[in-house]
From TrEMBL:
Keyword field contains Ligase: no
Keyword Aminoacyl-tRNA synthetase set for record: no
Protein known as: ABC transporter ATP-binding protein
Lineage of producing organism: Bacteria, Pseudomonadati, Bacteroidota, Flavobacteriia, Flavobacteriales
Cell compartments where the protein resides: Cell membrane
Gene Ontology terms for molecular function: ATP binding
Keywords tagged on the record: ATP-binding, Cell membrane, Ion transport, Iron, Iron transport, Membrane, Nucleotide-binding, Transport
Topology class, membrane: Peripheral membrane protein
Domain ABC transporter: 4-244
Primary location: membrane
Pfam families per the UniProt record, alphabetical: ABC_tran
Gene3D superfamilies linked: P-loop containing nucleotide triphosphate hydrolases (3.40.50.300)
Length: 257
């Protein structure tokens, strides 16, 4: 059974003027040990989907389950031990160091005094080693570049040590070298620690090469399968509404005509 499951899920927003439906009838099973990328054009609803399956937004209709339990049945403290989240929103201003920011990932497990036990310290240091940011530990987080800050947020999620990690465009501010390192880190985490990792990205070629499964949101519906199966189905052939960008099935990449 999947770690995350959606059944007949409709996502969107309720406004005073009515309901805005972003995507409808989403039924997927996301399993542990998988790196799952979420692809789609800007404005298609990727962030809305991630916020819905992580409990930030309520579904318009349908259901989200985590470990076979409705997501709304979890308290916030228990849910934070199931799921860690890396969003693109900026943090409130503060003078936290990198180490202190990553240590916040241990809050679901610390006592009421927020004292760090040896196990907490070990998780924090391991997260910094995995993301290659140990040299930044004493820096104030506002002194970091966008790329460095993104890696710190990922380290905080790793330190939280949850079976599910959800990330909204984690590679946005990284150069190609660090994008590849990030994708490989996430894949190793998924496969070696049996986590379910779901992330949205615009790095299509890397996602096709390194993801175990892909969720593709398009105007005509949602597609979910392995990269090879989706390629065989031809769903990437007309990904862009531009005849100068074509998809090369043999090499699993987009190229300019």
């Amino acid at each position: 059974m999947g770690v995350i499951q959606t059944k007949n899920l409709n996502i969107g927003y309720d406004h005073k003027k009515g309901t805005q439906v972003i995507a409808e009838d989403i039924s997927v099973v996301l399993e542990s040990g998988k790196l799952i990328s979420l692809l789609g054009s800007n404005g298609i609803g990727k962030s809305t989907f991630l916020k819905t399956i992580s409990g930030i937004l309520a579904p318009l209709s349908g259901s989200v389950f985590i470990d076979d339990q409705p997501i709304e049945s979890y308290s916030s403290s228990i849910l934070s031990q199931k799921l860690s989240l890396v969003l693109t929103e900026k943090l409130p201003e503060s003078s936290l160091t990198v180490y202190e920011l990553i240590a916040l990932g241990r809050q679901p497990y610390t006592n009421w005094l927020d004292q760090l036990a040896p196990q907490d310290i070990s998780q924090i240091e391991n997260a910094m080693v995995l993301t290659d940011i140990m040299h930044l530990k004493n820096k104030k987080y506002y002194e970091l570049s966008d790329g460095q800050f993104q890696k710190v947020l990922i380290a905080r999620a790793i330190a939280q040590d949850t079976p599910i990690i959800i990330l909204d465009e984690p590679s946005t501010h990284l150069d190609l070298y660090h994008k590849v390192k990030l994708f490989k880190l996430l894949k190793n985490l998924a496969e070696n620690t049996h986590k379910c990792i779901v992330f949205s990205t615009h790095d299509l070629d890397l996602a096709l090469q390194l993801s175990n499964q892909i969720i593709l949101m398009k105007r005509d519906g949602l597609y979910f399968d392995t990269p090879d199966q989706l390629i065989k189905q031809g769903v990437f052939d007309h990904f862009f509404d531009d005849e100068t960008i074509i998809f090369d099935r043999n090499n699993k990449q987009f190229r300019i005509r």
